[in-house]
Amino acid sequence: MSPPQDPRLPLMSDLLDLHRARPLLATALAPSDIGNLRLIGVTYRPEKLITARYAVAIAGEPEEVLLTVMHGDDVPDGGLRLASDAGEVALWRFPDDPALPGLPVVLETGSLETLLRELGIYDGPSTVQLRAYQPGRRAVVEIRTRAQRLFAKIVRPKRVEELQTLHRALAPKLPIPRSHGWDRRLGIVVLEAVPGSSVAASLLRGRPTGVAGPDDLIRLLDLLAGCAVDTRPRLPPVVRAPDHAATLSRLLPEAAKKVTAVAAAVMRAPDEPSMTAHRDFHTSQLLVDEGVLRLVDIDTVGTGTRADDLAMLLAQVSCLATPGSHRTAVLAYREVSARRFEEIVQPKSLRLRTAAAILGFAMGPFRIQAPEWRTETLRRIGEAERYVESAFKTDVG
Predict the structure, then answer these.
(1) Contacts of 339 (CB under 8 A, 6+ apart)
(2) What's the pLDDT tens digit per position in 273-291?
């Protein structure tokens, strides 16, 4: 099947087709000999930007080289620029992300040890492992030293002060990682590691002892609601639904009518009171250790609604419930949570907001280039449709 196309991003189809992408990457890596080539991640904003990540085998290199190519608006300064009749791209080799100057510093032993000394937490040689990477936006690196385990979050330098301020303000009030310090110029915050397994992992492994119940989640959000913060606005899933529908329509034209209808329906969600909220609340952000629930990612905290936080969690659990041995258990957890959540949020509001959040998660399989991303994306769209249908049944009931 031919890759999606976007007239405003003329090189998009080339970047998504490995055969056509190879000459572009070969030009950037000349005179190296390119071997196997894999597309390992894509982010896409229709008519604005596409980012493609590749793992490239190069003759003489012991490991695959990771390359990122950006095409469109908001391309960061730096990197290698390649131009053609169809447009221009920016390309860089990991970890030299021009928007994240702290990333190569954390991944290089000598510069990392210098940073840890400056923060007063150096205790000997360290090893590192990349845990997350969104080109041009953020990365998470696990650091292990002789006596401690840490996480470095690397963001754009203009965003780092807000992140550090959040951790300093919320750590005395919430079960979150404490900050050991930060570097404004490099965009790095170094955080303690907290024990536990994520609720998502426990669900997928069929380990109910590692799962927080709905009342535990509500208590955590109550603590958060009692905190005053001053952070950037973030559009809620209902407002973002039309954009998500537009993206999905480009990726899967056969689903365009369905996602457009879902986006139109969720706009009818009742208003909800504003409060300090997480704004990206889901089971991968939550760790449980010996019955203690902790929140490990607070980057998105700000003014939002309780309904959107609960809907986000239900949406993500719905997307975890792929066909497999523990699907029944995952769905059971979702239903138990939904029943409790609907005691504190209007069912129609919660269900429409859950449908909106699922539209956002529906792009996940394409983003990671899952082999069956089309099938899984359609399954998620179907989940969103079912939530919309059930929301309007509450009017009748």
Answers:
(1) none
(2) 999 999 999 999 999 998 8
